[in-house]
Amino acid sequence: MKVPVTPLTRPARLRPGARVAVVAPSGPVPGERLEAGLDILRGWDLDPVAAPHVLDRHPRFDYLAGTDEDRARDLQDAWCDPAVSAVMCARGGYGAQRMVELLDWDAMRAAGPKVFVGFSDITALHEAFAVRLGLATLHGPMTAALAFLKAAEVQESLRATLLDPASVRTLAPDTARTLVPGRARGVTLGGCVSLLAAELGTPHARPSAAGGLLLIEDIGEEAYRLDRILTQLLRSGWLDGVAGIALGSWERCGPYDEVRAVLLDRLGPLGVPVVEELGFGHADTAPTVALGVPAVLDAPAAGEGRPSLTLEVPALS
Length: 317
What we know:
Blueprint lengths: L18 E5 L7 H13 L3 E4 L17 H13 L3 E6 L6 H4 L5 H6 L4 E4 L4 H11 L3 E3 L6 H5 L1 H12 L6 E2 L5 E4 L1 E11 H7 L12 E8 L3 H13 L8 E8 L4 H12 L6 E3 L12 E3 L2 E6 L8 E4 L6
Parallel strand pairs: 1-2, 1-3, 3-4, 4-5, 8-9, 9-10, 10-11
Antiparallel strand pairs: 5-12, 6-14, 7-11, 8-13, 13-14
């Protein structure tokens, strides 16, 4: 019998003046974008600091922000610094899986709960923080990402989640639609679905999504590749017992009618509520959503109301 996903420890919300460390666990970071993102955080009366290697480039692989060892050291040092209240990722890309084994999880656990923010490739770290630290995290924008720099909605969603989390417990955009009707309660988990599939069988991946509310999205995966990814999750048994599924954005994944057909074909037979177009992920106006927090997914039948995802407690304590 699979052990159901359980609520994780929620870190404390941020207070004015809180120090926020910005790290680059994955891809290289444009310096001008980083500075613009740090300025936004300063405007929220936070105290952002960039990690020493955040602007590094790997000497051989230009898709990595510095060496695996330096990227891991930046994250670990930031997390273990008692003056730091939150760690935010500068961008996604690729690389988190290469450095996650280099982190000293015992030392990070001893440092206590802190806020951790990121998405996309950072999904590998969300899973590791859940499994190794038992910590709820935020699937939210990266400091040097264009969407964060340009979209007021993205900024406000993260700001409210960090500083006033009780004010942003419900996600119910106009775009939300029910794919499979019903109502489900569970603990949120998920992220970039291709990363969840890639994490299967690793020491930092949870054994299943049983009892959880799965939040998934992706970018640049054509319909047949999404089919392959979802089929792998199904064949592995990882989706057995999932309570409900919330779908975010599918940027550059091809015509959405094709994507929707794959999602419904692969996920519909699970017989659990499924809501589409909740907006989180790689969309230009994506909201911040909490992972590891008990929530309710409402997927009403057509004409009976708007679908929604509502946290039963604020994302941060």
